[in-house]
Specification:
alpha/beta, Rossmann fold, nine-stranded mixed sheet, four-stranded mixed sheet, 6 helices, 13 strands, 24% helix, globular
């Protein structure tokens, strides 16, 4: 199986690559268009700012490629957020526009921002991503922006307010948490994505 991690220059690449290797697969961290187009599975990780990751993808001529991709893609954290059409971050930025949602700063009154640490993920729609993962299992989060519940939400998390923690549209999946830092549940989710 050909597995690619898109090099966004702002991702948890080493941890993700290590987790994939632990599952018995090799993968490449790359921005090479041919390698990406010939992959069986694609990971789109991201930490930092939406502006930085979009700028890097534009520089590498990967925007159109990702938008038109027919291969299974898993966006992680910021990688999930940029699958939407717009982010409030950096005074507002247009993102990939693959899925019809926007990203907003968490509007908490009592809970601190960023949302960091372990929290429950409530899968509300059956998905192969959650095969052999119990409902309300814990995953590791680290983010200040989130996505409201929408037509593509398949799992939610509550941190004062409830938001989308997993989305799915066609061959595009996104998780707000970091599966590569989420222990057994995270490893299982990555394994599920790879075997779909």
């Amino acid at each position: 199986m050909k597995i690619v991690i898109i090099d966004t220059s702002c991702g948890n690449f080493c941890s993700l690559k290590y987790t994939i290797k632990k599952l018995g697969f090799n993968c490449k961290i790359t921005n090479n268009q041919n390698l990406i187009l010939n992959a069986d599975k694609i990971f789109l990780p991201g930490i930092g700012s939406a502006k930085s990751i979009i700028k890097k993808l534009k520089k590498d001529n990967l925007i159109r490629l990702i938008q038109n991709c027919k291969i299974d893609v898993l966006g992680i954290c910021l990688g999930m957020q940029i699958l939407g059409k717009y982010s409030e971050e950096n005074e507002g930025i247009l993102t990939l526009g693959i899925i019809d949602y926007s990203v907003h700063l968490m509007n908490n009154k009592y809970f601190p921002i960023p949302h960091m640490g372990w929290n429950k993920v409530n899968n509300i729609i059956k998905s192969p991503l959650f095969d052999k993962i119990k409902k309300n299992s814990y995953f590791y989060f680290s983010h200040s922006y989130n996505i409201c519940i929408n037509n593509y939400t398949i799992a939610t998390t509550t941190y004062e307010k409830t938001f989308s923690s997993v989305i799915h549209k066609e061959n595009f999946f996104g998780v707000q948490f970091h599966p590569e830092r989420s222990g057994t549940n995270g490893i299982r989710l990555i394994k599920n994505f790879l075997k779909m």
